[in-house]
Amino acid sequence: MVVKCLITHGADVHVKDDMDRTPIHLACENGFPLLIQMLVRLGADMNAVDKMGRPPIDYAVDPSVVEDAIATAADPWQYSSIYNDVDVFTVTPKPFGGCQ
Asked: Residue 88's closest CA among 9, 4, 13?
């Protein structure tokens, strides 16, 4: 997963674009539950607001998908089948050496 590689090599989960949207805003907007879970586990702020004053969940097409992803991220025992080939429990930053 590209995002896991970027985070492993030091990408900031709190970075903002020119509209003050963070990666969690974009994950919610695009409906990526695995990414939402990973970002929440890594400390992404679900209350961060963009320049329009909107938090990430306001961008969700289906807020229940975001709410379920957050609930699962908060409780690792709610293991989801989407984790079959991605280990989001052990993302450890290390010096950049390329992504495999």
From this structure: 4
Q: Residue 36 is part of which domain span?
A: 14-83
Q: And the tokens for 39? A: 């970002």
**CA gap 37, 44 in Å, rounded:** 9
**Count: domains in the chain:** 1
- Rounded to two decimals, the pTM is 0.71
Buried b (16+ CB within 10 A) or exposed e, 40-65: bbbebebebebeeeebbbebbeeeee
Express each pLDDT in 17-69 by its tens digit: 999 999 999 999 998 888 898 898 888 999 999 999 999 999 998 888 888 88
